[in-house]
Amino acid sequence: VVVAAKSVDAHPTLPGTLVDCVEEIRAAGGTASYIQVDVRDETQIEAMIQHAISEHGRIDYLFNNAGAIFLAPVAMVPPKKFDLMYQVNVRAAHIAAHYALPHMVEQGFGHIVNFSPPLHLDPSPGMGPYMVTKLGMTRIAMAIAEEHRGDGIAQHAFRCVVRENDGNDQRVLRRGARGERASLVASTLALGLRCS
Q1: How far does Cα 12 stand from its chain's mean position?
Q2: Contacts for 23-30 with beta carbons within 8 Å, 24 or more apart?
Q3: Mind listing the pLDDT tens digit for each residue in 38-54?
Q4: Distances in Å between the alpha carbon of 109 and those of 104, 106, 151?
Q5: Angle in degrees, CA 99, 138, 7, rounded to 5
Q6: Is 61 designated active site?
Q7: What value does the CA radius of gyration of the chain take, rounded to a whole number of Å?
Q8: Which of 149, 143, 153 lies closest to 93 in space, CA to CA?
Q9: Digit-coded pLDDT (tens) for 94-131
Q10: What local confidence, expressed as pLDDT, does residue 175 receive?
Q11: Short-list 145, 37, 143, CA closest to 92
Q12: Residue 137 burial (CB < 10 Å; 0-12/13-18/19+)?
């Protein structure tokens, strides 16, 4: 496992670091290394992929989990904030796939997981600019699935949402919702999965 993130240092309010994660994997008997990566920088993403190849000889799974979020109506999202969301969400997922795919094609196997929602036509008031970037990740996933259908590559769009426990999938709780009635539900859209 190669663990990559922007910060190596401990966060004042969030537990764990890249080093802690690698140590836990190793303590459980796994093989792991880490690399510090700012996903806005193409050269750092390319170095991350090369690090994985150098350390482990192959890339079987790529998780595009980095994310930037700024929820506000369109008129309230400064262009600089939109650019950041685009760079971290869409552009980084494209660049990581761009550098990982040749290795996956060569080995005849690979899974790429983008943390993004399924396509939908909901207007998303108060989060339109953010949703543009997340849905862009889903479109990349769909394209990769079709382009590499015969290459042993699977592409996934995956999201976690908080829903009420009554099982009604239409009642997604808004960001910041808390309480006993909430539970975490994971949904995934698997694209181009090859079964063998």
Answers
A1: 24
A2: 25/1, 30/1
A3: 999 999 999 999 999 99
A4: 5, 8, 7
A5: 55
A6: no
A7: 18
A8: 143
A9: 999 999 999 999 999 999 999 998 888 889 999 999 99
A10: 38
A11: 37
A12: buried
Query: Which residue is listed with tokens 């920088």?
Result: 41
Q: How far is CA 62 from the centre of its chain?
A: 9
Mean local confidence (pLDDT), 143-157: 92
Q: Which residue has the tokens 């909430």?
A: 182
What is the amino acid identity at position 89?
A: N
> What's the mean per-residue pLDDT of the chain?
83
In SS3 terms, the chain reads as CEEEECCCCCCCCCCCCHHHHHHHHHHCCCCCEEEECCCCCHHHHHHHHHHHHHHHCCCCEEEECCCCCCCCCHHHCCHHHHHHHHHHHHHHHHHHHHHHHHHHHHHCCEEEEEECCCCCCCCCCCCHHHHHHHHHHHHHHHHHHHHCCCCCEEEEEEEEEEEECCCCCCCECCCCCCCCCEEEEEEEEEECCCCC
Residue given tokens 């008997």 in the structure block? 29
Q: How many CB atoms lie within 10 A of CB 146?
A: 11
Helix 42-56 and helix 92-107, axial crossing angle in degrees, nearest 10: 30
Q: Which residues pair with 165 in a beta bridge?
A: none
Q: Which of these is catalytic: 34, 61, 99, 130? A: 130
